[in-house]
């Protein structure tokens, strides 16, 4: 009897895992996927935007998939894995590629992107949204309403602020966070009102002060840079309420927020539990944290022999192993890591039937 009971429990767990792994869809079709953000979500837009040298197009980027693709990783990144999980067979292409097939969505993310400002060497978050609005008639209203909009933005704002204002006091830091979130909110409203977006999947910011490149450049030793992490913590605490406030005003808007910060800190603090041998040094680069120069031919970078043992591939970007784990949690994780709903829940129900969201 006990054996039969154990078999039933095992079968139930297996069925749950299998269902969680299968692509969820609406009306039998996988949703379109649109991604916005910085280099962590860039699938190659940088190389089409500028003729300047792009290290992500050279070896050892792409090492784990045998060739560089313009992704700042040894292989695939979070949006690639999410695309597969929602049922898309091909990764979303960089929107700036003139030959790209945009029928299943597009990536607008680009290296160096910020929320504030209009830099000449990249596209700000607002400019990415304007590009989407310019092209939005390529997709039907229903396709855009049921699509998933993945967003990862803000890291460069805080890293740039820390470099420009290393002695800023807490009041100045909080004021800067408020400016970033205010502009982010306005840009998201444009994406909703003019672009037709209804389902936002937002990744909060990781512990930027613990990045190998930050530890190396600011010479923090075994510690993280507190100033940057304080701004990130403030940003992340206010991000959920900002999104919730938007749903009060726009009743058909739904969102998912992934606690990327918490997941990265867990891996930094407990490397062996997550299968890492190193969570504070880069796999590729040079310097005290091996954090500078990956992909540059004039820099004598080191390359680790086993990428899966590292949390970070270069000074600020994850390895493919890390991004795959993050994507699986973003897609099907519980409310301890992604809330109020995960991406699977966003995909699996029509906007009309999603439950009212609470913080």
UniProtKB/TrEMBL annotation:
<feature type="signal peptide">
    <location>
        <begin position="1"/>
        <end position="28"/>
    </location>
</feature>
<dbReference type="InterPro" id="IPR001087">
    <property type="entry name" value="GDSL"/>
</dbReference>
<dbReference type="GO" id="GO:0016788">
    <property type="term" value="F:hydrolase activity, acting on ester bonds"/>
</dbReference>
<dbReference type="Pfam" id="PF00657">
    <property type="entry name" value="Lipase_GDSL"/>
</dbReference>
<protein>
    <recommendedName>
        <fullName>GDSL esterase/lipase</fullName>
    </recommendedName>
</protein>
<dbReference type="InterPro" id="IPR035669">
    <property type="entry name" value="SGNH_plant_lipase-like"/>
</dbReference>
<keyword id="KW-0732">Signal</keyword>
<dbReference type="InterPro" id="IPR036514">
    <property type="entry name" value="SGNH_hydro_sf"/>
</dbReference>
<dbReference type="InterPro" id="IPR044552">
    <property type="entry name" value="GLIP1-5/GLL25"/>
</dbReference>
<comment type="similarity">
    <text>Belongs to the 'GDSL' lipolytic enzyme family.</text>
</comment>
């Amino acid at each position: 009897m006990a054996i039969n009971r154990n078999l039933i429990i095992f079968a139930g767990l297996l069925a749950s895992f299998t269902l969680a792994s299968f692509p969820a869809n609406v009306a039998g079709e996988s949703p379109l996927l649109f991604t916005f953000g910085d280099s962590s979500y860039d699938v190659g837009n940088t190389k089409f935007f500028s003729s300047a040298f792009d290290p992500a197009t050279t070896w050892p980027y792409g090492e784990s998939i045998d060739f560089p693709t313009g992704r700042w990783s040894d292989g695939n990144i979070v949006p690639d894995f999410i695309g597969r999980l929602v049922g898309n067979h091909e990764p979303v292409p960089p929107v700036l590629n003139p030959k790209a097939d945009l029928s299943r969505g597009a990536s607008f993310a680009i290296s160096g992107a910020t929320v504030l400002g209009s830099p000449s060497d990249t596209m700000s978050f607002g400019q990415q949204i304007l590009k989407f609005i310019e092209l939005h008639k390529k997709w039907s209203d229903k396709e855009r309403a049921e699509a998933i909009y993945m967003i990862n933005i803000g890291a460069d704002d805080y890293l740039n602020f820390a470099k420009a204002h290393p002695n800023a006091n807490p009041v100045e830091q909080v004021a800067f966070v408020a400016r970033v979130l205010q502009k982010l909110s306005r840009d998201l409203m444009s994406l909703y009102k003019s672009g037709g977006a209804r389902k936002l999947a937002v990744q909060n910011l990781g512990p930027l002060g613990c990045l190998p490149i930050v530890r190396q450049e600011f010479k923090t030793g075994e510690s993280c840079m507190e100033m940057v992490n304080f701004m990130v913590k403030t940003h992340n605490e206010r991000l959920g309420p900002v999104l919730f406030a938007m749903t009060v005003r726009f009743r058909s808007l739904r969102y998912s927020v992934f606690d990327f910060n918490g997941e990265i800190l867990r891996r930094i603090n407990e490397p062996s539990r997550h299968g890492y041998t190193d969570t504070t040094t880069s796999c590729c680069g040079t310097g005290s944290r091996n954090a500078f120069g990956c992909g540059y031919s004039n820099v004598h970078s080191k390359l680790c022999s086993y990428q899966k043992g590292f949390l970070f591939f270069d000074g600020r970007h994850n390895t493919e192993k890390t991004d795959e784990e993050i994507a699986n949690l973003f897609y099907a994780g519980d409310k301890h890591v992604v809330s109020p709903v995960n991406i699977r829940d966003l995909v699996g129900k029509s906007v009309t039937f999603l439950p009212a969201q609470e913080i």
